[in-house]
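Database export, one record per block. Field names are fixed; values are copied verbatim from the stored entry.
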Amino acid sequence: MASPLNDPKLEALLDRLHAQSDTQVDKTNAYFERREQKVAIDQESFYDDDMVRFLSDKMVALDRDKAEFC
């Protein structure tokens, strides 16, 4: 699909950032599944310092189609 950006450098940057985000999807999903189970069992807060640390280096990007629309 052709990009409406017409800027090869920007397109390359976005491709790199989306690729980085794509590599983190499974790890992030697994983390949140474990958090949900732990909260249900231990009645702990869902949001805590552990979550902040985990998310600190994650690329939480919009899907490519949604990002392009924005």
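Remark 1: Residues 4 and 16 are 17 Å apart (CA to CA).
Remark 2: The two ends are 17 Å apart (CA to CA).
End of record.
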